[in-house]
């Protein structure tokens, strides 16, 4: 195992943080940037209603399914190298999506974004962990990182709306190309080649195939349930095959010498609590963001740009919740208290959305709900992100970092599919029961049903955090235990 270069100067450490956080922001933005632009893209490319959700989930699903492989590649071949390959590949995939002439080209481009994003995201967290191995700067670094990335979803909605209105929906993808130039140049200038672990290790390609296929089939079951019903044989078969493939993946990990996911990563209760709660939190956020987009555009008649502006309170609140509230609390109280309280606050705020109907004004309900969701999730995800690499071996740093992204992306994919199915089913049921009901009223009823489920997901995240995260209250400077590694710099 080779050693790293000498520790970077304080100024260069913060430049590295800006570089890698900007790259992560691009990844997060692309998970939702087409949400607001989706109605325009659907009309332009004649995308069917059943295929519409795959424009969103083809990215998040491939991304989540391959993150473990991306994390392991970073561990084996160097994080800077994998970071740059992922970033450049992501830019090229974005360009393909931006000029896509057909639905299938767009779906392929989104899937390729997921592939390269899976290389990029684990390298980002590993680089931060190794650049800030301990002390108060580590807490500050993760606070800045959490603020940038947790606001990325809402910022993506804002960008998608403004670009769609003033240019066209294709720029929602093309914008990633100029954005990527900053971290590409920054990585070449400021990030040194980092440690490469054991190059004799073998990549667990069968494991990657099983994990990705299992998640894809599982998510595919939700639109089937929407079209055919929950008890249809095809729906049940999709869920059964998905669970079977994921079970086979878990079994394979116990038999391989170089597993894609060493199960020891999941046996530490604090990391497990962080992964699980983050997945449940993003399951709610992705679904709520999607329904608020359609509520504002379809029900309220907002333009895409105005819809994006309407999400600004969520953007600002998430940033303040992570870098401000979350970082401040981490110096004073136990991580599980921050996480459980944040998820509970966000869950109550989601329940406020049930008060919305077709003629409800933007203020005060929607404004207050967005602020509560942003502050709660921002504060909760800040310690959860830092816990992702808590007390891991150096050779597992990439995979451990990948797990927090996996939990969020898989949670987002399942949330989009599950909550969309729940809302659509509730809308259809309402129209059948109320023959004279206006479609807008039925849509709002469907959204209400989905909001209740989304709030339940956040309450479950709070419970998981309270039961599993047991680190003590910090003494003096806030810092979670660093990665167990000799690698002290990048």
Automatic annotation (TrEMBL):
GO terms for molecular function: transmembrane transporter activity. One of its GO terms (cellular component) is plasma membrane. GO terms for biological process: response to antibiotic. It is found in: Cell membrane. It comes from Streptomyces dioscori. Signal peptide: none annotated. Its main location: membrane. Keywords: Antibiotic resistance, Cell membrane, Membrane, Transmembrane, Transmembrane helix, Transport. This is MFS transporter. The chain crosses the membrane at residues 14-33, 53-70, 82-105, 111-130, 142-163, 169-191, 203-222, 234-252, 272-296, 308-331, 338-356, 368-390, 410-431, 451-471. Pfam families: MFS_1. It is a multi-pass membrane protein. Gene3D superfamilies: MFS general substrate transporter like domains, Multidrug resistance protein D. InterPro entries: MFS, MFS_dom, MFS_trans_sf. Residues 16-473 form the Major facilitator superfamily (MFS) profile domain.
